[in-house]
């Protein structure tokens, strides 16, 4: 009876010792039982088992004692040290300082962005551009740029900000950063016209539009599965809990003297956090907005986008990963950066899909439709061909590229994207033509490919016109299109007896974030008028005449009524004539790549894309 009571006490002690401690790994056979002699008596076996259980209980009690809170007999210094360590860990957890990049990641990131021979001037450009709205009332919805170089980052953010401000104002008060597909489902496919009262946007609305845009873009780079947010260790734990202008003061003091001139410098100050929840990412971005508004903001957002995509994926997107993303000698953002922020992939080209060069080689372009689009002056100079994915985005907003700068073009009325009969048929034929165009956007295809286009688009050309087009051995788009315009509809053409098919008139707005002198907004002083330094916003009236090419329009407009030939041709010329004499600027050339034959008018200084 005593032995049984002793065993019960030992089992109780063993159970108590196992509380709050992890169980030992299960074993198929107890190791200690292997040493028991085969001739042990039942009494000796019970005695040995009690000893083993007691030893195990003692071992667990000692382990529990070591992990227990310090007793009053501990020194004050020990208790103070433990308390400070726990407080530091608690504070770090609350502040969320983020994680350091490994040495390898930091060097890969720095080399990818800037290369090995980057100048201090370029590094200074990218280290002194924040993401801030213009203080000027007329352009307060726009992000202002003070340094050359990061305009590609600012312009793409600006395009997404305009999307949220103009077309989703009712969503700005909500915390959750919706994915693009969720936003689209909440907006009807019918026509929507946004307000042109840009100065009415409150600071809170603009800030939330900025946060939603940044969150959307980072998740876009992360394949809608993740977002990486990069911040700075030198200021991350100083702004938590601060309010108002005190945050700007704290950040300015923390950044004083900070420069990033190498991968080691980047690794020392950069901290990153990874998010899979849009809500968590939105709240983190909202808390860190003062950092992105600081002089390091544009660079931090670019780094966030690259890390969201993944450095290896970025390199796989590119045709030539040996070149830096920031181009020399002026430090401009490459097309790969702009494409990454627009479509989530750092591809270098603007055409649709991929271009097969043969021999297993191909060039990568835009593979999906996008929320906001892209136009470029280089297309009007025949250096490239922008595909339909970028030309026809979901919302009427476009980043506009020139040789050295990026700006933003947008409309308030979604109907500018609607295609009339002429445009719809032109898009269908052009898409089939471009699919066969292996010239890199040169606008010509082989005879064999041409016959494939005719089959796909149900165009039946008379033999004499077919022979004329194929006579040179290749078919040029402009010549083919003129034949289509003169071909009867029952043969697949677009011959128009009314002379009005394709006519459109609408308004566009152009925003250039570079702060420059605005002569139209001069301020009167005692010494005379002083031009205001601010971004520029220009309203354009765009007229698309029916069916005419610009050359045909100018020729017909110059014909006197007495020499017009017929009453019908006079009527056509009158219909084609715009309301005002057209004005010219490089931006108008960009607009004509989206709306062929368009002419533009504006009031005041011409819109600038440089």
UniProtKB/TrEMBL annotation:
Keywords: Hydrolase, Ubl conjugation pathway. The keyword NAD does not apply. Residues 110-479 form the Deubiquitinating enzyme MINDY-3/4 conserved domain. Residues 1-99, 561-588 are annotated as: Disordered. Gene3D superfamilies: EF-hand. GO terms for molecular function: hydrolase activity. Residues 76-94, 569-582 have a biased composition (Basic and acidic residues). The keyword Hydrolase applies. Hydrolase that can remove 'Lys-48'-linked conjugated ubiquitin from proteins. This is ubiquitinyl hydrolase 1. It comes from Gossypium hirsutum.
């Amino acid at each position: 009876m005593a032995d049984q009571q002793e065993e019960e006490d030992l089992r109780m002690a063993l159970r108590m010792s196992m509380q709050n401690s992890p169980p030992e790994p299960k074993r198929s056979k107890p190791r200690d039982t292997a040493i028991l002699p085969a001739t042990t008596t039942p009494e000796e076996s019970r005695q040995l088992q009690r000893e083993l259980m007691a030893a195990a209980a003692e071992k667990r009690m000692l382990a529990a004692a070591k992990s227990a809170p310090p007793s009053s007999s501990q020194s004050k210094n020990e208790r103070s040290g433990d308390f400070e360590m726990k407080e530091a860990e608690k504070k770090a957890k609350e502040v969320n300082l983020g994680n350091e990049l490994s040495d390898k990641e930091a060097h890969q990131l720095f080399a990818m962005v800037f290369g090995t021979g980057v100048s201090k001037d370029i590094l200074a450009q990218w280290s002194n551009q924040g993401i801030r709205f213009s203080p000027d009332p007329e352009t307060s919805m726009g992000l202002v740029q003070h340094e050359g170089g990061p305009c590609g980052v600012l312009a793409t953010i600006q395009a997404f900000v305009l999307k949220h401000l103009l077309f989703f104002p009712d969503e700005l008060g909500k915390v959750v950063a919706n994915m693009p597909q969720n936003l689209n489902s909440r907006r009807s496919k019918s026509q929507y016209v946004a307000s042109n009262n840009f100065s009415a946007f409150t600071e809170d609305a603009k800030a939330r539009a900025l946060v939603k845009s940044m969150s959307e873009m980072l998740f876009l780079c992360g394949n809608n599965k993740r977002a990486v947010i990069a911040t700075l260790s030198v200021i991350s734990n100083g702004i938590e809990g601060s309010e108002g202008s005190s945050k700007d003061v704290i950040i300015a003091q923390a950044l004083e003297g900070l420069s990033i001139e190498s991968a080691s410098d980047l690794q020392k100050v950069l901290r990153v956090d990874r998010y899979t929840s849009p809500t968590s990412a939105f709240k983190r971005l909202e808390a860190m907005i003062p950092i992105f508004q600081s002089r390091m903001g544009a660079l931090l957002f670019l780094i966030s986008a690259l890390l969201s995509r993944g450095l290896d994926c970025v390199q796989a997107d590119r045709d030539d990963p040996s070149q830096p993303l920031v181009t020399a000698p002026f430090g401009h953002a490459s097309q790969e950066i702009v494409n990454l922020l627009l479509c989530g992939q750092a591809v270098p080209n603007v055409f649709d899909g991929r271009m097969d060069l043969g021999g297993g080689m191909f060039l990568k372009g835009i593979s999906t439709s996008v929320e906001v689009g892209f136009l470029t002056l280089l297309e009007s100079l025949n250096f490239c061909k922008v595909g339909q994915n970028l030309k026809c985005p979901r919302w009427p907003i476009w980043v506009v590229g020139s040789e050295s700068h990026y700006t933003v073009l947008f409309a308030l009325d979604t109907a500018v994207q609607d295609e009339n009969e002429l445009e719809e048929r032109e898009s269908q034929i052009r898409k089939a033509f471009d699919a066969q165009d292996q010239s890199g956007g040169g606008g010509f295809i082989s005879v064999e490919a041409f016959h494939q286009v005719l089959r796909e688009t149900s165009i039946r050309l008379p033999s004499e016109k077919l022979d004329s087009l194929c006579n040179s051995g290749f078919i040029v788009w402009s010549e083919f299109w003129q034949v289509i315009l003169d071909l009867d509809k029952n043969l697949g053409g677009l011959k128009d007896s009314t002379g009005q098919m394709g006519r459109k008139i609408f308004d566009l707005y152009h925003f250039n974030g570079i702060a420059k002198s605005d002569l139209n907004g001069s301020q009167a002083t005692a010494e005379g008028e002083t031009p205001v330094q601010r971004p520029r916003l220009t309203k354009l009236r765009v007229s698309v005449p029916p069916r005419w090419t610009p050359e045909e329009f100018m020729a017909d407009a110059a014909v006197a009524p007495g020499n017009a030939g017929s009453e019908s041709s006079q009527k056509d010329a009158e219909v084609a004539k715009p309301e005002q004499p057209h004005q010219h600027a490089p931006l108008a050339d960009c607009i004509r790549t989206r709306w062929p034959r368009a002419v533009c008018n504006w009031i005041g200084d011409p819109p600038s894309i440089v």
